[in-house]
Amino acid sequence: MEPMLSVKNLTVKFPTDDGMVAALNGMDLTLNRGETVGLVGESGSGKSVTSQAIMGLFKESRAVIDGEITFEGTDLLALSEDAMRPYRGKKIGMIFQDPLSAMHPFYTVGAQIAEAYQVHNKVSKKAARQVAIDMLGRVGIPDPKRRVDNYPHEFSGGMRQRAMIAMALVCEPELLIADEPTTALDVTVQAQILDLISDLQAETNSAVIFVTHDLGVVAQLCKRVVVMYGGQCVEQASVRQIFQRPSHPYTRGLMASMPHLAGDTDRLTPIPGSPPALLALPKGCIFADRCEFAKIVPDGRCLNMRPELIVEDDHAVRCHGHELKLIDETSLIGAGS
Amino acid sequence: MSAPLLEVTNLTKHFPIKGSMGRTVGAVKAVDGVSFTLEKGTTLGLVGESGCGKSTTGKVLMRLLDPTSGSIKLDGEDITGLKGKQLDGFRRRVQMVFQNPASSLNPRQSIGAAIASPLVEQRIKVPGGIKAKVADLMDRVGLRPEHANRFPHEFSGGQRQRIGIARALALDPDVVICDEPVSALDVSVQAQVVNLLKDIQADTGVSYIFIAHDLAVVKHMADDVAVMYLGKIMEQANKRELFENPRHPYTRALLSAVPSVDLDAALTERIRLGGDLPSPSNPPSGCVFRTRCPAYELLDEAGKQRCSTEVPAGAMACHFPNAPLAATVGA
Ligand SMILES: Nc1ncnc2c1ncn2[C@@H]1O[C@H](COP(=O)(O)OP(=O)(O)OP(=O)(O)O)[C@@H](O)[C@H]1O
Ligand SMILES: Nc1ncnc2c1ncn2[C@@H]1O[C@H](COP(=O)(O)OP(=O)(O)OP(=O)(O)O)[C@@H](O)[C@H]1O
Ligand SMILES: [Mg+2]
Ligand SMILES: [Mg+2]
Known about the structure:
The complex is a heterodimer of chains A (about 325) and B (about 325). Chain A is built from 13 helices and 12 strands. Chain A has helices at about 45-55, 80-85, 100, 110-120, 125-140, 145, 155-170, 185-205, 215-220, 240-245, 250-255, 300-305, 320-325, and strands spanning about 5-15, 20-30, 35-40, 65-70, 75, 90-95, 175-180, 205-210, 225-230, 230-240, 310, 315. In chain A, the strands form 2 sheets. An 8-stranded mixed β-sheet of chain A has the order 6-7-8-3-9-10-12-11, with helices on both faces. In chain A, strands 2-1-4-5 form a 4-stranded antiparallel β-sheet, covered by helices on one side. Chain B has 2 domains: about 5-235, 3-Layer(aba) Sandwich (Rossmann fold), CATH 3.40.50; about 245-330, no CATH class. In chain B, about 30% of the residues lie in helices and about 20% in strands. In chain B, the strands form 2 sheets. In chain B, strands 6-7-8-3-9-10 form a 6-stranded mixed β-sheet, with helices on both faces. In chain B, strands 2-1-4-5 form a 4-stranded antiparallel β-sheet. The relative contact order of chain B is 0.14. The interface of A and B includes residues 142, 188, 219, 254 and 258 of A. One magnesium ion binds next to helix 1 of chain A.
């Protein structure tokens, strides 16, 4: 079966005063109907740019885009801004990283949800208001009849995030992109929101791309994980594979640097070095200068040649060492225990 | 037995709420009766949800804010009422590392000058010269001393946090209050900074108050942990005790809310707190946690009555620590 969404070799560059910022450098991602995929990676690795590109938010910007974004058989990159509109908000919903900036402070929460609905559905104001009330109830806002007339600042952080989810889901999109929807929240509120997203997802069978840098959240919510580094997918696999047998050296590093609530480790193992400079990317593997395996791969290949994303069964890895079978699958670092 | 390095007793900090005509109409009870001790060379972790009073506690300990009541003793000496010169002397011994490394550094000041600033402000005579001291501090936190003339924007988030740590260490303090020092950092950078803080402690015997909302990081850093809710400490214990055998319903709820990376972990307890945090200007009577407590709903009338009227005290501030918990509470 064709995947619902397929992103292939996507590049996004931003012209800036200092030169071209290469935010995405051949990004790949596939998503099936009803599936929840976690998109993880360090700050600046291109998670939000990937989400924004799928939403078609760069159509009228100076960003230089190349590659392929196919959604249900349609090439989204080829669409004009006008042709994109029925997709944005209707077929593809998005929860933004910063709920305060995504909601207008001068309009009531209810009016904003109602408007999101009316953009794509021809209904009366009164009917749209009722939809907003129902939606607020569905995302667990107590007393929605009264709360519908509140302004965003009258909501707590957790309630605002719920309202954002209501706004993104009011048109029942087939794909929901949630960009770090819980990062700014306390764990207790985060737990409520994660429960809510799983429940709604089970109810509507929509597919979800969940952007986060919290691997615990991924383990709880997702079946599959896409790990990003330097604007590329470096590994894509089932949650179990990623947590128990990570292949890419970056994924392994991420696992080892994480403190665990279970077990006792005296020292964490950080990844040495710092993230790549997107203004001047190396010609070889983008992770090579931080990678302990680059030394054992012959011919200085890691420094001179970009590795391809090699797909085997449901597991994709972009690494010369892995491709040449030089990295021992069983030598496990971090991950649980 | 000698006095603990730091002893905090019944500390409160209330911020007055002014109505029209400048009259005080109420108070935000940001810190409301906090007590703990900190021994030399150890770390106390301070955790709890946003707004529970962690940073305010830190600022009062630093004497950046005056406490409303209670006492703070350093090496047995009460420093609660210190002023002027004596306060300066105290400040030398207690330093702070802030959450946001970017905003706590002046963008127009070289990082060498930033690290030297506590020495200059306190007019400290450094035997080998300030330059050498700064180079030594930079070396200690893993920064290259030849970068002393560079400016904050030339450094990454993790490096800026190292600059903040070097500055806090300039006066060889006894206590460093770390207010969410790694919350804004990626896990791999976070691991570097956490290791650095531990290494410094092993070298110098400095004590930390480590404020964070990430329980896994606190578990890694702290010897003892205090869990705060609405300005009060709910439970306070040795780290091992607290994480392996949490007793307060709030601690248990907090721990069960942390998403686990262990895919095969049995879902033992899954306690969801409903509702919102009450306002610290109008906290519930009796036990402040009762309105969200997963044990409260299942108590009989007499139990509920007790929770609504009596404030629980002690290191485990709960009237019914062994009561059964409801799985989910509230809306
Ligand atoms: N409009 C823009 N102009 C120039 N550079 C940009 C723009 N948007 C993003 N970038 C850059 O592209 C890179 C990827 O950014 P992106 O926001 O996708 O990161 P991210 O993975 O979402 O990080 P975070 O975890 O911090 O949200 C960053 O270096 C960012 O500075
Ligand atoms: N200067 C002030 N004036 C009035 N109220 C204040 C002031 N500083 C803090 N507060 C209030 O005191 C309470 C405790 O705030 P504090 O910053 O100590 O919380 P925190 O536990 O550090 O939270 P976070 O995790 O969000 O940093 C909050 O309700 C806050 O709004
Ligand atoms: Mg982002
Ligand atoms: Mg704080």
